[in-house]
Structure formats: structure tokens, C-alpha cells
């Protein structure tokens, strides 16, 4: 069967499957998860989306563990949340950790056991972005992106799983990206790490459902944070500037609220993006040849824009 035949088949199957999915969600009435007193472990809580998630879960009455590298920023956030404390809220706890640390799993296990002795919600949020051409990118950069965005989160997840399995409940939320669904030029290492995250946690979802553990992969479009500022360049230096796309992105508090809703409703995944981006994701599946042509044109355009700036 040729490419066109396969794509037509997809279109024919896709419509009825979407209609059945809609019917399933309309008829299934799952009870909302009550967040009060739940223990939430958030990586990358020192800034951006992680910080917004910490605020959102704290205001829902959760016991929040603020994990990250920057102790000073985490303590500042803890103090800020404490200063607004209402009677139903718990004081957050700071946990200093680096996703590149080989012993991160032992540290997480110890922290969970010694802080509240349980964990209900894990938010695998910390991450870093990248800008560069494959041909110019150092292997160390590819490796770092893979460790920070994917392998580090695997270690943390494995450390918390025994607690959730014993409790027979839990929620694991992974902050991926729309780039975990479709790769764009000059973001190879970032897109690869997010694709890996998507695949790994899709596997895990199936394996842990019978323990009452829910896995949700969140794939947002641009969010107004420091992600592009902190992104790595091909040579390993910091990109160091805010890209316009990021500046025009979603408010991190809006995205954090969507993540809270995902946990409450036990969602399996969320693609938070404008319609045309969702269309591009569909195009990648239904008409890959067209998607590849569009991306090749984009790569050429970016290259000539870069040459002009030199
Ligand atoms: N912003 C966007 O446009 C966008 C879009 C889609 C998905 N996302 C995803 O959203 C997540 C949060 O990013 P953000 O947008 O909030 O960017 P951000 O403001 O740069 O936050 C990134 C967080 O990750 C932490 N981090 C980085 N490397 C770490 C390491 N080795 N160990 C521990 N923590 C580390 C940072 O901590 P330090 O303070 O220690 O650096 C920071 O707290 C990321 O997974 C990102 O891929 C972002």
C-alpha cells in the first residue's frame, strides 16, 4: 500500500475513533481527586512553570516538596508561600537536588521517607532547552539534554514508584512539550529528549494502571518563562536571550492550573497548544511527507536568517 493509501486509511479510522473517544469521555464520570493534604514532589520548582505549579498545589492545600538545584530561590519561594498561608495550607519543604547527580534516586527516596513518609503526586517538570544545528552540536550537549530532560526523571520516578505501589495510588505528571510530539529543526536534542519522555511514560502508564497509579504527559506550546534564556547552544554555552515565541507564550499560572485539573480528573495526557499546532501534530502522523517539506523550508529560512545576523 502506498503512502497515500496509508494516509487515507488513517483518515477513515481516525474519525470514528475520535467520535468513540468523545462519547467515552462524555459518559465516563470519574470522581475528581481531592487535593487537600496530598503530598506533591515538584522538580524545577525554583522558577517558571515549576514555581507556578508549587503555588497552585499549595493553594489547593497540598503538602508541597520544592525540589531543585537553587536552594536560595527555593527557600525564597517557601517563605513567600508561608507568608500567604491560610488555615488549610501546609508549609512547603525544600529539597535540594540536581538531575545530573548520579545518586539522585537515593536522595529522593530518603527525602520522601523522611519528610511526610509518602508521596501522592510527582511532577517531573525540571528541564532545559537547546538551540543549534546537529552538525555543530557537541555530544556533551546532546547528553546533558537527555539526562536533565529524560534520564534524571526516570531515576526520580523509579525512586518514588515503590511508595505509590505500596499505597496503591498516585499520580505521575511529566512536563513534556509539543516538541515531544513533532520535531522541529535546530531543536534536535530537546525534541529527542521530550520524545523519549513521551514514549517511556506511555509504557509506564500501562504498567502501573492496575496499582491505581495515573500517568499524565503534558505537552505545552510556548510558556512565558526563562526556558530560552537558560537554553544551551550547540557549543554548550547559554543561549542567554528571551525568544519572542517564549515571550508571547502562555502564562505559567494558566498552565499550572491546567496541570492541577489534569491531576484532579486523572487525565492521561494534555496537549496545550493552539489549533494550528495540534493540526501540525496530526499532519506529522497523517501526511508525514508534507510535514517534512514544511520543516525543511523552515530550516532553510532559519539558516538564512542566522547568516544575515552574522
Ligand atoms: N517555557 C516553554 O516555552 C516550555 C514549553 C513547553 C514545555 N516546557 C517545559 O516546562 C518545563 C519547565 O520549564 P520552564 O519553562 O519553567 O523553564 P525555566 O524557568 O528555565 O525552569 C526550568 C527549571 O528546571 C530546573 N533545572 C534545570 N536543570 C536542572 C538540573 N540539572 N537539576 C535540577 N533542576 C534543573 C531549573 O532550576 P535552576 O533554577 O536550578 O536552573 C528550573 O527550576 C521544562 O521541562 C520545559 O521543557 C517549557
Total beta-strand segments: 9
The rounded Rg comes to 20 Å
Largest sheet: 7 strands, parallel
How much of the sequence is in beta strands? Answer: 5-15%
Helix and strand composition category: alpha/beta
| Unreliable segments of 5+ consecutive residues | none
The name of the CATH topology of the largest domain is Rossmann fold
Share in helix: 40-55%
The mean pLDDT is 93
How are strands sequenced across the largest beta sheet?
3-2-1-4-6-7-9
Detail the topology: elements first, then pairings.
Layout: H1 3-27, E1 39-43, H2 48-59, E2 63-68, H3 71-83, E3 93-96, H4 104-115, E4 121-124, E5 130-131, H5 139-167, E6 170-175, H6 188-208, E7 213-220, H7 227-230, E8 232-233, H8 244-247, H9 252-264, E9 269-272, H10 275-286, H11 288-309
Parallel strand pairs: 1-2, 1-4, 2-3, 4-6, 5-8, 6-7, 7-9
Helix pairs in contact: 2-9, 4-5, 5-6, 10-11
Bound molecules: NADP nicotinamide-adenine-dinucleotide phosphate.
